[in-house]
Design brief:
mainly alpha
Length: 126
């Protein structure tokens, strides 16, 4: 004996305001902002002779070490870059997470409410 479920009917969006319907867009925009902020901070040099967390080239510090007999400038630069890279990668990961969260919210919202509220106003299609 087979059981058949009735097809799911979309639930109407109800009396959701404009900002509740577009909240996913704000989450995606915030995620992009946080990601860009992390990228910009990651491009800032970690010291006067050091590279940045996203471009850790500290050739000037290495040349200073070579010229002055190993004063430790390169090692200090790389330690500083490693310490500075933690918040950069955290910001970038949070940004990507917010974008993915906003997209998932939009997909779930489409599945639950059967499309946008604007589709109900358009009238029946012929």
């Amino acid at each position: 004996m087979e059981m058949h479920d009735a097809p799911a009917k979309p639930v109407s969006a109800g009396k959701l305001g404009f900002w509740q319907q577009r909240a996913w867009l704000w989450v995606v925009a915030a995620g992009l902002d946080v990601y860009i902020l992390g990228f910009v901070i990651g491009l800032q040099p970690s010291g006067p002779l050091c590279g940045s967390p996203l471009f850790p080239n500290s050739r000037a510090a290495e040349q200073l070490d070579f010229a002055q007999g190993g004063v430790g400038a390169a090692a200090r630069c790389y330690r500083t870059i490693e310490a500075d890279s933690v918040p950069v990668w955290i910001l970038m990961a949070v940004g990507v997470g917010l974008v993915l969260t906003g997209v998932v919210v939009r997909i779930v919202r489409i599945r639950l409410f059967g499309g946008s509220a604007g589709a109900e106003k358009a009238g029946p299609s012929q």
